[in-house]
TrEMBL record:
The protein's role, per its UniProt record: Transposase-derived protein that may have nuclease activity. Does not have transposase activity.
Protein name: Putative nuclease HARBI1
Source organism per UniProt: Takifugu bimaculatus
Key words, A-Z: Cytoplasm, Hydrolase, Metal-binding, Nuclease, Nucleus
MF-aspect GO terms: hydrolase activity; metal ion binding; nuclease activity
Domain DDE Tnp4 residues, every copy: 168-315
Protein location: Cytoplasm; Nucleus
Amino acid sequence: MLPECVLIYDLSQWSRCLEQERKLILNTDSWEVKRQGDNPQKPLAYDAEYSDEELNSIYRFGTQGIIYLCDVLRPHLQRPTVRSHALTVEEQVLIALRFFASGSFFEVIADSIGVTKSTVGCVVHSVARALSSLLNEYVKFPENEEENLQNKKQVFSIAGMPNTIGVIDCTHFHIQDPREREWEFVNRKGRHSINVQLIGNADLRIINCVVRWPGSVHDSQILRESHIYHRFQQNTPDGIILGDSGYPLLRWLMTPFATVTSNSQQNFNYAHTSIRGTIERINGILKWRFACLNYIRVEPKEACNIICACIVLHNIAQKRRVPMDEDDIPLPEGLIEAPQPHQTDEPAGRAVKRAMVNLYFS
């Protein structure tokens, strides 16, 4: 399945950005950035003096993970220049990772490593665009029957929900007040945001995303306008997706019972809620791992690129089993749903749901 996002490809700012860095001297053997003179700034490096634990804390990746990212992004970030002040791929990746992980102001990051604010901004947006271009490679549904079956087994082991390949939900990413069409981005809590649709699996990876809608748009509309909705309506997938009551009941999308009238329906709802906690946990990990997502201080188009970049990085981190401090990750909030507009259930969806309840939860 193809992720959906807004991508910006304009690297012309790089030439202007690099012209401002004439006073920088880069020691590329150690990836250390210095200003002209005798006062070296904090090194932008990963070498023997830094443990993987320290690197994970600063960049969210250890040595091997950073090397992997540099290799993946090199074709996108390598600059065809012989100027002594051109940033290496390694430096660009580390600057961007520091921003993604900390969410600090560009000025703070610039001062800590001895470059200018404009350089940090150019680097962050360039790396974000490069990572966004890799969405199709890192954000996708299981590619073969074996992967799909393994995914279903993982979900079933959580609460006994059969034939489930993922969980869908939308989450809001707070952004600064946009300069244009500001009112479209105000969500139901009165904050400006991008409303992002995510589908996640039991391995806490994101297998589909839609990153392009302002905060005022409802979750169900995002689904109905998405590529995955039209694809699955035409060709039913090998498995089902779970969603909350804000979504319509479809033959491939199961929602909970709004009114419970039997023990079997109660059992179904319990399993449904338990597994839906997976997507809440993914949201929590994503925003903990990349603190920049808690408040994105750029215009909506650039914000979409940053969100997409962090989704790609999240999946890479999950695949590489990058360790997390479980105590620091916020627990999913109780699944108390906000009032939702009425959704029209599909007759085929009701039939599938009834069969599931009779076979597995009675």
